[in-house]
């Protein structure tokens, strides 16, 4: 079985997995990192949204063989400060606005939100309505309006 090495949530890992196994299953089933959720497996629902090298991506549609040894994957589990356990400002904002209903989509929503704020800042601007409209993460519970309010609050503290 081929071996694949990369960093996830600050920890270097090596896993044995066939080249075509999607990263989401490596994270969830081999590494026990279950924050990224399985919804569709075809890069549509965005429930699995995580970060690769600081950018949002969907590990359900990326074979583990595409991940390079220098790649850094971050999931919702990797957001809190490892030294203090303090939550990321976007997580705090989610709590403040009581966003979640069933919660299933929420890790992906938070990861998408953080990536959007960082992308806007890298472009020298703040996140706005056009950015919100681009977030494609599906929420079956319809928490969209609270998500937008929480992103504004979280962005203000990032
Ligand atoms: S499970 Fe990854 S986008 Fe739906
Ligand atoms: S909170 Fe239930 S799917 Fe989004």
Q: How would you describe this structure to a colleague?
A:
With 158 residues, the chain is of the alpha+beta class. The protein has two domains: 3-77, Roll (Ubiquitin-like (UB roll)), CATH 3.10.20.30; 89-157, [2Fe-2S]-binding domain (DNA polymerase, domain 1), CATH 1.10.150.120. The protein has five helices and five strands; from the N terminus they run E-E-H-E-E-E-H-H-H-H. It has a five-stranded mixed beta sheet with strand order 2-1-5-3-4, covered by helices on one side. The longest helix has 17 residues, at 106-122. The protein starts with a strand and ends with a helix. One FE2/S2 (inorganic) cluster (FES) binds at residues 100-106, 139-141, 143.
Jot down its keywords:
single chain, DNA polymerase, domain 1, 158 residues, 5-stranded mixed beta sheet, 2 domains, Ubiquitin-like (UB roll), binds FE2/S2 (inorganic) cluster, alpha+beta
| Distinct small molecules | FE2/S2 (inorganic) cluster
Mean pLDDT: 97
For the largest beta-sheet, the strand count, sense and barrel status come to: 5 strands, mixed
Strand order of the largest sheet: 2-1-5-3-4
The H/E string reads: EEHEEEHHHH
Outline the low-pLDDT stretches.
none
User: What is the annotated CATH architecture of the largest domain?
Assistant: Roll
CATH homologous superfamily placement of the largest domain = Beta-grasp domain
Number of DSSP E strands:
5
Treating each run of at least 4 consecutive H or I residues as one helix, how many helices?
5
């Amino acid at each position: 079985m081929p071996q694949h090495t990369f960093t996830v949530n600050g920890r270097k890992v090596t896993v044995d997995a066939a080249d075509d196994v999607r990263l989401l299953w490596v994270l969830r089933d081999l590494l026990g990192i279950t924050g990224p959720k399985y919804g569709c497996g075809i890069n549509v629902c965005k429930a699995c949204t995580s970060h690769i090298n600081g950018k949002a991506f969907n590990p359900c549609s990326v074979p583990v063989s595409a991940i390079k040894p220098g790649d850094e994957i971050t999931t919702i589990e990797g957001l809190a400060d490892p030294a203090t356990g303090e939550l990321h400002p976007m997580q705090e904002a989610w709590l403040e606005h009581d966003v979640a209903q069933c919660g299933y989509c929420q890790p992906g929503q938070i990861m998408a939100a953080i990536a959007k704020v960082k992308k806007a800042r890298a472009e020298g601007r703040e996140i706005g309505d056009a950015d919100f409209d681009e977030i494609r993460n599906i929420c079956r519970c319809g928490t969209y309006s609270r998500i937008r309010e929480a992103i504004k609050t979280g962005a203000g503290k990032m």
